[in-house]
Every structure is written in structure tokens, then in C-alpha cells.
């Protein structure tokens, strides 16, 4: 089951929330900053212990003060025109998060719009990749059972809804 939600990812009732992190895992603005603020200072301490995360990969931490089981930190690509591997790196973020959720027996996961903030990924292209990767995963695997695309605003949520409708028609 795939859903679209508008609101604060830290308030969703899911097993895992995904953080659109930077490579240093040190917190920042946008979703990353909101997750770090909600989780409390122990999250930054845990992230420092990990030492970083390359673009396209994922690292997991406890959720601390957020009432979910885990936080998956993934680093999306910075948009540089699309010819430097950005689509594959973004797809890899989703694949790695979904694979880890399956391996850890997580039943639900919420994704933000990875790379669509300060990393300037064109939203329409990012949404197409996100929906495609999630749909492909769910077509071959039953875990996680619930995937939520959590959007900051209604305009982004509408892009996800339109892409999901297009997938259903195929």
C-alpha cells in the first residue's frame, strides 16, 4: 500500500522514517533539521559515531525521541543537470532503504522527497524515480507493507498522486 501525506514526517505512525541527510550526517536544514530537532541530541551523537554516508547509500540509527523504531539516513544526489549519475543515485537511495526495511522486518516506512530541497533535483523527475522504485520493490516483495511519501506541501503531494495514478493506468 502506497500513500501520500502532507505534514511533518516526525509525527507519522510508522516503523521507519527516512531522513534526507547530508554526507556528514550532522543535521542541517529542511527535513534533516526537523528530524534532528525532533529526535533530540542523542541522534547527532549516534550519527557522529557512524562517520558519514555516501550518496545513494543508507545508514540506520535508533529514533530516540521520535516514536518510531528506526531512522534511515540516506543521501540523495545534488542535481547537476542529470548526466552525472544523479538518477541512479536517487534510485539507489530508495532501493537501499526498502531493502534494509525488509531485512529488518519493518512493516511501514515514510519517505520525504529526497534531493528536492537544497539539492535542487527537479521534483517531477525525482517523484517519477521514487514511485517507480517503490512500486518495483512492492511488486516483488511484501515488506514493508505500507510506504508513505510524506510531503512538505500540497503541490509536492499532488506530483506524487499524479505519478501514482499514472502507474495504476499502466
Task: Kindly summarize this structure in a few lines.
The protein has 170 residues and is of the alpha/beta class.
- Uncertain residue ranges: none
The SS-based structural class is alpha/beta
Helix content: 40-55%
- What order do the helices and strands follow? EEHHEEHEHEH
Number of structural units classed as domains: 1
Protein name: O-acetyl-ADP-ribose deacetylase
GO molecular function: O-acetyl-ADP-ribose deacetylase activity
Organism: Microbulbifer halophilus
EC number: 3.1.1.106
Structural topology:
Blueprint: E1 2-6, E2 16-20, H1 30-39, H2 41-50, E3 58-62, E4 70-74, H3 86-103, E5 108-111, H4 123-140, E6 146-151, H5 154-169
Parallel strand pairs: 1-6, 2-4, 2-5, 5-6
Antiparallel strand pairs: 3-4
Helix pairs in contact: 3-4, 4-5
Tag the structure with descriptive keywords.
single chain; 170 residues; alpha/beta; Leucine Aminopeptidase, subunit E, domain 1; six-stranded mixed β-sheet; 18% strand
Provide an overview of this structure.
There is one protein chain. Helices cover 42% and strands 18% of the residues. The chain has a single domain, classed as Leucine Aminopeptidase, subunit E, domain 1, CATH 3.40.220. It has 170 residues and is α/β, with parallel strands linked by helices. It is built from 5 helices and 6 strands, in the order ββααββαβαβα. The chain has a 6-stranded mixed beta sheet, sandwiched between helices. The mean pLDDT is 94. Helix 3 packs parallel to helix 4 and helix 4 packs across helix 5. The longest helix has 18 residues. It comes from Microbulbifer halophilus. This is O-acetyl-ADP-ribose deacetylase.
Amino acid at each position: 500500500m502506497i500513500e501520500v501525506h502532507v505534514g511533518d514526517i516526525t509525527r507519522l505512525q510508522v516503523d521507519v522514517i527516512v531522513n534526507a541527510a547530508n554526507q556528514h550526517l550532522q543535521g542541517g536544514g529542511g527535513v534533516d533539521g526537523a528530524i534532528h530537532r525532533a529526535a533530540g541530541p542523542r541522534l547527532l551523537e549516534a550519527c557522529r559515531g557512524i562517520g558519514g554516508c555516501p550518496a545513494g547509500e543508507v545508514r540506520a540509527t535508533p529514533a530516540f525521541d521520535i516514536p518510531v523504531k528506526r531512522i534511515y539516513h540516506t543521501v540523495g544526489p545534488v542535481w547537476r543537470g542529470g548526466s552525472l549519475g544523479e538518477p541512479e543515485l536517487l534510485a539507489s537511495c530508495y532501493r537501499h532503504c526498502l531493502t534494509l526495511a525488509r531485512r529488518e522486518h519493518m512493516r511501514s516506512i515514510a519517505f520525504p522527497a529526497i534531493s528536492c530541497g537544497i539539492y535542487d533535483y527537479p521534483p517531477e523527475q525525482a517523484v517519477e524515480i521514487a514511485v517507480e522504485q517503490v512500486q518495483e520493490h512492492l511488486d516483488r516483495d511484501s515488506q514493508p507493507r505500507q510506504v508513505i511519501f510524506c510531503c512538505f506541501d500540497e503541490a509536492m503531494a499532488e506530483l506524487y498522486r499524479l505519478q501514482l495514478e499514472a502507474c495504476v493506468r499502466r
